[in-house]
Amino acid sequence: MDVRTAVTSHEVTLDIGAEFARLPFGRFPEDGPNNGQRFREEFLIPMFEKCERLVVILDNARGMGSSFLDEAFGVFAKKCGLTLAEFKRRIEIISRRDPSLSESIEQYVLDHTSASIN
Amino acid sequence: MKLLKRLSEEQRRRNQRRLRRRQKNAARRKERRDHYRKYGYKPAKHKVRIIRTQAPIRLDLEAEDTVTRRQTIDFLRRLQTIPNIHKKHALFVDLANCEFVGLSAALVLTAELEIAQMRNPGMVTGRDPIDPEAASVFDIVQFHRHLKYVTIPEDQMAKPSENLVVKLQSGGLQDSPGTRLPEAAAAISEVLRNCPDIDDVEANMDRIHQALNEGLLNVLQHAYPDEGSRSLRHALDPKEKRWWAIGIVDMVENKLTLFVYDRGVGISSTLRPNLRERLAGYVGKDRDMRAIKAAIDYGRTSRSEGDGGKGLPQMLDLISHFPGSFIIVESGHGLYVVDNSSGENEVSVGTSEDPLPGTLLYWELRLDGREDGGD
After folding, report:
1. Which residues in chain A are closer than 8 Å to B247, comparing Cβ atoms?
2. How many CB atoms neighbour CB B197 within 10 A?
3. How far apart are CA B260 and CA B207, in angstroms?
4. Contact A47, A14 (CB under 8 A)
5. Chain B (277-306) residues lying within 8 Å, Cβ to Cβ, of chain A
6. Considering only CA atoms, which of B314, B306, B277, B318 is closest in space to residue B294?
7. pLDDT per residue over B257-278, tens digit each?
8. Taking CB atoms and an 8 Å cutoff, what residues of chain B touch A35?
9. Chain A: nearest CA to B243, how far in angstroms?
10. ipTM of the complex
11. I want to staple B285 with a disulfide (CB 3.0 to 4.6 A). Which of A61, B43, B51, B351 is the partner?
12. Are the Cβ atoms of B210 and A63 closer than 8 angstroms?
């Protein structure tokens, strides 16, 4: 069985702006309905568990600050026990409008995974 | 005997007339009270007095001389306390003698008068500055439109200069903040669309949107804790838990000015317990200044255990994308400034003798990428 074929056939795309909210905001439910915790628990984790590779598109959502991204991706990596390398292997972040967002997400993942190791 | 009986009847009729008159007057008083309660007026047992408060000649929170700043803060604090003490009196705010008004002072003044109006509806009036330049600052912050002092049609209202594009947003934390706040941040960041010559407008708009989101999220999470505040003299009405944000693009000067203001407890009251312990030896002005520095440097707040606190650093990072810019974080006595004028982020901290009521974030972003002395 060709591994490469197996991986690409299990690739799923998640467009935050189209499928979750155009204006994500905050960390927790008390911050508002489109918070990072809800995105992580209702979208990110379920879709991650069903595929080999998850492509997350950020371009159609606006104003995703550090609070949302940290809670969505950083805490996700900690809860799933992923290292940064595993995160990058399993998840591809597409942010053409602002490429620095994908770097920020990697930093949040690193913060949480290195904190959990320590 | 007959005479006594007649007198008694007359007396009886007189008493009945007196009783009917009393009942009629009581019904009229009740109707007036119900009317006043419905429209927010309180029936005054005495004549309504007018409390006049005069603004200083210069209203400037960024003034370098302490006298001007003190006079500005004193004036703003009077506006906080007068409507609370004299609930049955009208407040007259006299701005006629103002010769200079800073933008941040105008925004804070707008906020204070909005709260004064909420406490005593219809009881707050005043006089505009005579100086046209001072008056124009109030047009920029949409003072009259925001406080509904305008009685002329929208199309006949004085507009700020054509070189300026202004977006003012405000709201209360009771009004669906989870949706209202990001929408307000999006609306303000849109002012940058008026500058098409900027490189990467979409990405920069998004960065501004993110920074504003973090500033407003801090207001939602920290500014008005439920358990009350040591810095407010009275229990805060939920309606008074409000925020104000404004974005002003100056297309001639090529700069974008952003403010986020709240009348909350201040940064030093909302640090994590472990950070509060580190600041235990400091009091007053020093404590407020060190609290802002701790919140930024240590990147942790009291709200989330183990996570969080990245918002303030992200707000500061915004100026890295706009060389020649600065940000000021002012809370209580404390002041934290990051200045990118020389191309590098230079941090300075300080204290003020006169504490600002609340927390103010103030960005000035250069849109042409020009640093000091550069082209």
Report:
1. none
2. 9
3. 15
4. yes
5. 304, 306
6. B277
7. 999 999 988 888 877 666 666 6
8. 178
9. 15
10. 0.88
11. B351
12. yes
* Contact list, B217 vs chain A (CB under 8 Å): 25-26, 31, 65, 67
Identify the H or E element spanning B64: none
Return d(Cα B136, Cα B141) in angstroms, integer. Answer: 9
Chain B contact for A59 (CB, 8 A cutoff): no
Cβ contacts from A onto B, under 8 A: 85
- Phi, psi of A13, deg, nearest 5: -110, 135
Contacts 24+ apart (CB under 8 A), B74-78: B74/B354, B76/B105, B76/B108, B76/B109, B76/B112, B76/B357, B77/B357, B78/B53
pLDDT tens across B289-325, in order? 888 888 877 664 433 444 566 777 788 888 888 989 9
Which chain A residue lies closest to B208 (C-alpha atoms)? Answer: A63
CA distance B172 to chain A (A): 14
Minimal-distance CA residue of chain B relative to A58: B206
Residue of B nearest to A27 (CA): B308
Distance of CA B218 to the CA centre of its chain: 15
Cross-chain residue pair A75–B307, CB shorter than 8 Å: yes
Largest CA distance in chain A: 48
Q: What is the pLDDT of residues B177-226, one digit of tens each?
A: 899 999 999 999 999 988 877 888 889 999 999 999 999 999 998 888 87
Beta strands in chain A (DSSP E): 11-15, 53-57, 91-94
